[in-house]
Write a structure and sequence with these properties.
It is a single chain. This protein is α+β, with helices and mostly antiparallel strands and about 425 residues long. Helices cover about 40% and strands about 25% of the residues. The chain has 14 helices and 18 strands. Strands 7, 8, 9, 10, 11 and 12 form a six-stranded mixed sheet that branches. The chain has a five-stranded mixed sheet with strand order 15-16-14-18-17. Helix 5 packs parallel to helix 9 and helix 12 packs across helix 13. It is elongated and about 80 Å long. The N and C termini lie far apart (about 125 Å).
Length: about 425
């Protein structure tokens, strides 16, 4: 019993962690039965939602790398099933988190981590007769629109429950007037990271974001953020602005090396035009995310190709280019480590003497020099071990490039200029 009491006191003594873990990689899309392939369209739309939610960038789906990947959305799926939403058939999808993260890296897009700030929303709606707070179970179309857009962007929202403590602890006039201290006091019962106060009148929204813990609102001098949006999509624009704010604060760009990459060499590039044509055509391939030039030597260029597909699919797409021809790659040579060698030592002095006499009869050299040379040859000779040679990793593919012959345009003299020159010559002759 004593341990339970101590555990409870510990919970009271330490603040709760309000950061919420958002499920970035799941999506549910209503099937449009009026089109020819509703499942294919729903898969693409679901992947677009995941890309925007995971990156925190609304325009991420317009990225050229993302556009290629969307055409191959099936290879990013981990699970798929059918469901129901408001009486309509839906497609429920879960995408592979590591593949989506790698795709964002290939596209040089940021990753907004799943641990995100949780916001408490005080929504005050003004009608012709009164102002009221939208509680968690309120039938508010504006609140539902805010929650839906926040789900798509991956922005966690907490709505006040509207119980006795909420009703008696908050004054609507304080919320509408934007008084910071009462807002902070009314929000302290909720373990959130920030507080959003929204004042709605017709299609106009005025909002104030306190990006701080509720207990510090109105106490510290930290200035809140504020904005004003209007129109039928005012709620969407407001949620987008707040999501962009938090995404920029905590997003990180994942290193490009996390994507699958191969080395590819192209030979027989005769001029700069061939190089630029080759680079442009490779970048247009749906299997290619990006290119890095690793080596240029003579007429050869080696790329590090970051892939959106398998190396085999990349090879097939390159071979469809009429200028590319595959070259067989020879097996890499085997590197043999140098070893220490030692000449055998003579068995006895008789062998040394015999070698000395033999050298003396065949060469007209001084006897002392001959003996020293023979003795030196009889000693063990040790060859110093050399370090192993560094072998460059061979490319995965080698292609020969057969570029077209590009002729430089010839300058063309305009007929008007020629006629003007002729008229000047005639005038000069007349004057003469």
């Amino acid at each position: 019993m004593r341990s339970i009491v101590l555990f409870a006191l510990g919970l009271i003594g330490f603040p709760a962690l309000a950061l919420t873990n958002v499920d970035l990689y799941q999506s549910q899309v209503v099937l449009d039965q009026s089109i020819e392939k509703p499942d294919a369209q729903a898969r693409k739309q679901g992947m677009e939602e995941v890309i925007v939610r995971a990156s925190g960038v609304p325009d991420a789906i317009h990225n050229s790398v993302i556009q290629k990947a969307l055409q191959q959305n099936a290879q990013y799926l981990a699970q798929i099933s059918y469901g129901q939403l408001d009486g309509q058939k839906t497609l429920k999808m879960r995408f592979n988190d590591s593949q989506i993260d790698s795709l964002l890296s290939q596209a040089q897009l940021p990753l907004w981590p799943a641990q995100r700030a949780n916001l408490l929303v005080w929504l005050i709606e003004e009608s012709q007769t009164e102002r009221s707070v939208a509680w968690e179970d309120s039938n508010s179309a504006l609140l539902e629109s805010m929650k839906q857009q926040a789900t798509e962007r991956g922005l966690p929202l907490t709505i006040p429950v509207g119980d006795f403590n909420d009703v008696t602890g908050v004054n609507i006039s304080d919320l509408w007037g934007g008084f910071a201290l009462p807002v902070g006091q009314a929000s302290q019962r909720y373990p959130v990271d920030g507080v959003l106060v929204v004042r709605a009148s017709n299609n106009n929204l005025r909002w104030t974001l306190y990006d701080q813990m509720p207990k510090t609102i109105g106490v510290t001098r930290q200035a809140p953020l504020s904005g004003n949006d209007s129109g039928q999509d005012a709620a969407d624009k407001m949620i987008d602005q707040i999501s962009d704010y938090y995404a920029k604060q905590s997003s990180v760009v994942v290193a490009g090396e996390s994507s699958e990459a191969i080395k590819v060499r192209f030979t027989s590039l005769d001029n700069a035009v061939d190089f630029f044509v080759l680079e442009r055509k490779l970048q247009q391939l749906s299997s290619v995310a990006s290119l890095d030039i690793t080596k240029i030597q003579g007429k050869d260029v080696t790329f590090k190709v970051h892939l959106l597909a398998t190396p085999t699919e990349f090879e097939q797409q390159v071979l469809r280019l009429r200028e590319a021809k595959a070259i067989a790659i020879e097996p890499a040579p085997v590197v043999v480590e140098p070893t220490i060698t030692q000449e055998p030592k003579p068995a006895n002095n008789a062998v040394v003497e015999e070698q000395i006499l033999s050298d003396a009869t065949t060469q007209s050299l001084d006897t002392d020099t001959t003996i020293n040379n023979a003795a030196a040859q009889a000693l063990p000779a040790i060859i110093e071990q050399a370090p192993p040679a560094i072998v460059e990793v061979p490319p995965t593919f080698i292609f020969e490039w057969h570029g077209e012959q590009y002729a430089a345009p010839m300058p063309v003299t305009e007929p008007q200029q020629e006629e003007a020159l002729e008229s000047e010559e005639i005038e000069t002759e007349v004057d003469a």
